[in-house]
Every structure is written in C-alpha cells, then in structure tokens.
Amino acid sequence: MDTHTFATSPSGNIHGMPVAALLGRADKMLATLYSSSYFIKPENLILIGIRNYEHEEYELLKQASVEIVFANQINGLTQVLIKAIDKLSLSCQAVGINIDLDFIDPDDAPGVETPAQGGIKAREL
Question: How many whole angstroms separate alpha carbon 30 and alpha carbon 20?
Fold first, then answer.
C-alpha cells in the first residue's frame, strides 16, 4: 500500500511512504517535498491488486475513504482497470497509472527489493 509514515513504518524505508505523502498525510520531514496544491484527493485514488500490507497503512486509507481492490477480488485485471478508469474519468481530467513492481510475480521481476509472492504474471500485465 506504500502508505506508511515514519511513525508507523516497521522498517523505516521511505519507499513505503509515497502514497501517504501524495494524500497529504506525510510526516513533517517529507511534507516539504510535496506542494499542498498537488495532493491527490482520496476519492481520486484507487489501489488495485493489494496483497500484503500492515494494519497502519490500511487504517490510514480506510480513514481517508480510499477505494481498495484486493488481489483476491480480481478476476481479470483488464475489467478492473476499465472500471477504475471509467470511475476516475467522471472526476479527473487525466488518469495516471502507477505500477509498483512488487505487484508482479517475483519470478518475473527478480530484482524487486521487497518481493511478494502471488503477484500478477508479467505476461498478463
């Protein structure tokens, strides 16, 4: 989910914090990196394919009312992406897609620092 802060992160790895920062919920040490006019509104963010996360990340996203589609809810990635783009197109002028490499099966992305088993096959992506 990459929605940690320094207060919640078990590892302290900054690469687990960008979503919190983009939502305007970053630690004070990171907040200066993001202009307040560029925060993502929670209703304009959909996380898709979530498999592994910590409770603190989930709680922050739940409090912000961010939509989450867990990996076990996906039966065809194409359909999920089209639905998300259709929804976001109603309130956004542009839609961006960010793919976290640990979303991909570690067999297909062996260089990922924090691999998570059960990801999507590169071929399907």
Answer: 10
